[in-house]
Q: What sequence folds into this?
């Protein structure tokens, strides 16, 4: 549904719905929201309605509705990218990882299942299995999703990292996901565990192109196995895809998802 079809009155009603204050919404606006699939008959938000309501809310309210704590980070330099400044803040606190949005998870899924993905590759090509995006391979092999997840759940970490290094040796991969290495990926893989990575792969595989985006910017792990998933914001807000992915995945992601506000 195009955003242009949502009038200011509808947006106001959606925001009111977040606090349960819908009594003042007029009948015509209520009917319009129901017609667009944003309200149930009892004036409660549908999933799509909730996503649009949160997307239109101020940043602090978005974080509250997603259940995310806020960490404030000050940039040491105006020239430094916010994601890199946030990453530096956490590395000083003992974390390893990446600021490539969703990259480590998608690469680990591909690395853990690489031998099987090569086996079922349409072209019989290992390089294609290495370089084709994970969401594309999960879409192509949708009927084999259970087998892929089973392979991931039982994968040995040493083999996963070996496969990651093979995948990352391709320049198109290393340029798309910069500044990764086997030490960072091992830390993330150990914190995730392969059985949990298989559950994440299963969730992504339910709609791969829907969940290829919207991941938090930071994927971090510490030596104790703790994880942080940090969405970095400066003056912008959470986009709909971020709200959708985070709210869907947060029940299976280990550790803490947080809003990292960089100024």
A:
């Amino acid at each position: 549904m195009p955003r242009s079809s949502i009038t200011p009155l509808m947006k106001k009603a959606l925001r009111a719905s977040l606090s349960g204050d819908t009594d003042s919404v007029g009948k015509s606006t209520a009917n319009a929201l129901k017609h667009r699939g944003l309200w149930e008959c009892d004036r409660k938000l549908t999933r799509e309605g909730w996503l649009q309501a949160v997307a239109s809310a101020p940043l602090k309210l978005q974080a509250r509705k997603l259940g995310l704590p806020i960490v404030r980070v000050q940039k040491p330099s105006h020239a430094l990218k916010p994601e890199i400044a946030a990453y530096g803040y956490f590395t000083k606190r003992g974390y390893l990882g990446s600021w490539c949005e969703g990259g480590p998870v998608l690469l680990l899924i591909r690395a853990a299942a690489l031998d099987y993905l090569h086996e079922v590759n349409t072209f019989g090509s290992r390089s294609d299995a290495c370089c084709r995006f994970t969401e594309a391979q999960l879409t192509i092999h949708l009927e084999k999703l259970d087998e892929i997840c089973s392979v991931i759940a039982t994968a040995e970490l040493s083999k996963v990292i070996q496969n990651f290094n093979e995948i990352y040796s391709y320049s198109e991969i290393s340029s798309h996901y910069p500044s990764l290495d086997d030490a960072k990926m091992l830390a993330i893989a150990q914190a995730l565990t392969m059985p949990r990575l298989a559950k994440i792969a299963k969730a992504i595989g339910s709609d791969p192109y829907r969940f290829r985006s919207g991941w938090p910017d930071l994927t971090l792990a510490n030596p104790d196995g703790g994880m942080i998933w940090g969405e970095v914001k400066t003056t912008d807000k959470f986009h709909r895809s971020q709200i959708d992915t985070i709210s869907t995945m947060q029940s299976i992601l280990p550790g803490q998802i947080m809003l990292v506000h960089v100024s």
